[in-house]
TrEMBL record:
Belongs to the FPG family. It catalyses: Hydrolysis of DNA containing ring-opened 7-methylguanine residues, releasing 2,6-diamino-4-hydroxy-5-(N-methyl)formamidopyrimidine. Residues 239-273 form the FPG-type domain. PROSITE patterns: FPG_CAT (PS51068), ZF_FPG_2 (PS51066). One of its GO terms (molecular function) is DNA-(apurinic or apyrimidinic site) endonuclease activity. It comes from Nocardioides currus. Its cofactor is Zn(2+). This is Endonuclease VIII. Pfam families: Fapy_DNA_glyco, H2TH, zf-FPG_IleRS. Residues 2-93 form the Formamidopyrimidine-DNA glycosylase catalytic domain. InterPro entries: FPG_cat, FPG_N, H2TH_FPG, Ribosomal_uS13-like_H2TH, Znf_DNA_glyclase/AP_lyase, Znf_FPG/IleRS. The keyword Lyase applies.
């Protein structure tokens, strides 16, 4: 799933490609992906791209005052094409194409989603706050307003909820998903099951530094990369996430996994839990 660093870099890449160019047309190949009806999708035809930004994990293409917003979900992505087919994209259940954005010189973007579970969402709105997921977002880790005091207040308000779930929940902190929450907790040498309200004092400072450091470093590594390079960059630099059975790069212990119905977490027992393997059980509802 694309998370804050990848969406930040994707927005920067697309801004360089799309700024001040006209949208000729948008073909919708997966009708279920479009979540709004007013303004209509065709209202973007003939508009001029003014900006490409990010809200948490939402990508926002602003064109002539209207916002085309996408949430790429677990398996979505955006691919740049120097030349798109002349014929409009058509619905095809076997094709990963969800939408195609054609710009003035017949180049464009393919918005795709792999797999059979379709969660990618497209919105056309006048104000980003009209998208419910954006309206509910917590503070952004890259924002200067995200301070250690803000983090401390969030953790205390979440009570005994496990820190892994709190980091992932977009209403508490925007942009952190399954992968980077694993990485942050590994950097902080903290158990994913640690109760949020118990994180105070030195532990709070350690977690705050791990959030800022992990996300900031990932953003810097991704900055300037093309969209086609971002997934590989992310995977290459992960310490524990997606590395079950491999050696922890810090201590050499084996990276372990806890599985859930639709996701999993990875951690190092030596670095994070005093050498004790975690029980493979369901966590809070925030992980569902």
């Amino acid at each position: 799933m694309p998370e804050l660093p990848e969406v930040e870099a994707l927005a920067l890449d697309l801004k360089g490609r799309l700024l001040d160019r006209a949208i000729t047309r948008i073909d919708l190949a997966a009708f279920s992906a479009l979540k709004t009806f007013d303004p209509p999708l065709h209202s973007l035809h003939g508009t001029l791209v003014e900006d490409v930004t990010r809200h948490g994990k939402f990508l926002d293409i602003t064109a002539s005052g209207t916002h085309l917003i996408m949430h790429l979900a677990r398996a979505g992505w955006v691919r740049w094409r120097e030349e798109v087919p002349a014929l409009p994209a058509r619905p095809n259940s076997k094709n990963p194409l969800a939408a195609r954005i054609v710009i003035d010189d017949e180049a464009g973007l393919d918005v795709t989603e792999a797999g059979t579970k379709k969660s990618l969402a497209i919105y056309v709105v006048r104000d980003p706050q009209d998208v419910p997921g954006i309206a509910r977002l917590g503070p952004d880790p890259l924002d200067d307003a995200f301070t250690i005091d803000v983090l401390g207040a969030i953790l205390q308000s979440e009570g005994r909820k496990q820190i892994k779930g709190v980091l992932r929940y977009q209403g508490t902190i925007a942009g952190i998903g399954n992968a980077y929450s694993d990485e942050i907790l590994h950097a902080a040498r903290m158990s994913p099951y640690k109760p949020s309200s118990s994180i105070e004092g030195d532990d709070l400072q350690t977690l705050f530094d791990a959030i800022k450091g992990t996300i900031g470093a990932a953003v810097e590594r991704s900055r300037g990369l093309h969209a086609s390079e971002l997934k590989g960059e992310k995977k290459t630099n992960l310490a524990v996430h997606g590395r079950t059975g491999q050696a922890c790069p810090v201590c050499g212990d084996v990276v372990r996994e806890v599985s859930f119905a639709d996701s999993s977490l990875q951690y190092c027992a030596t670095c994070q839990t005093g050498g004790k393997p975690l029980a493979d059980r369901r966590m809070s509802k925030l992980l569902k």
